[in-house]
Amino acid sequence: MTASDTLAPCSILMLAGGQGQRMGGRDKGLILWRGEPLIKHLQRLTRPLTDDLIISCNRNHEQYRLLADQLVHDDQCDFPGPYAGIRAGLAVARHDFLLVMPCDTPLLDVELLQGLRQTAANDLGKPAMVRQGEQWEPLLCCIPVIHRQVFEQHWLQGQRSPRRTMAELGAVALQCEANDPRLANLNTPDLLIDIRQ
Prior knowledge:
The chain is an alpha/beta fold. The protein has seven helices and nine strands; from the N terminus they run E-E-E-H-E-H-E-H-E-H-E-E-H-H-E-H.
């Protein structure tokens, strides 16, 4: 029996709904890196971990549909940010936990993702978030789906910071080293070229 066999099933949400401002307005998830769209690297990594793979996207639905079990999109047309994608993912998740990651982190590995799942499972209903050195990474998290109403309530109150909502829920850290290469955000053209690992 592997470690993943002992973990509760989870839904997985990949965030690809942003405006891509640092990429000149291009859809980041579909930008080629090492010969494939960025999101394809994550899809290949996460596909064995779930039967409920969700992509949050606001354009290019036909291309993303080939990679996911479900698509979600923002209910506003002005790219309101990742909170909207997390909220939409929580609303449709089929399992008790939602593992979240941005589409521009193709160097993530299974050990880190399973660590997030285990941390959330160990802490009695609290979300788990990656902390890189002293820096929280709220878009790399595992959220118990029982909190979907809290996210919805905070959204309606104007909250747009996932970190603040998860902090209120007592989020616990999966601690990583500062500058952990697995957490590289390839969100500018220069970074796409510079990351060679």
